[in-house]
Amino acid sequence: MDRRGKISVKIDEVHECENISQLCIDQTPSVKEHTRDELQEQLNFYKSLFKTHHTSCVFNLRMKTKNGKKVWVDPVNDSEEYIRMLDKDEEVDQWLQPVRPSR
Asked: Can you give the pTM of this predicted structure?
């Protein structure tokens, strides 16, 4: 930000945005349709957060995969059985480890 409180934008960033918008204009209709479908799928996934985990704190939620499909997981409130059904990664394995007592 400059002294007048306005946001300063670098010229390179403006040119990059112009290039991206031109790339979107130059795409064929099938590519645009595919991109639109992907964005719609992502939007539906983010909206599903309020249907599946409406009682969870958002900062506890993680995006994981179950059989290759994205799902929301709350390691605090979701059952161990549900967590075991997820595709394995380092964080999921850590959740399944027993918690060591502090003393």
From this structure: 0.62
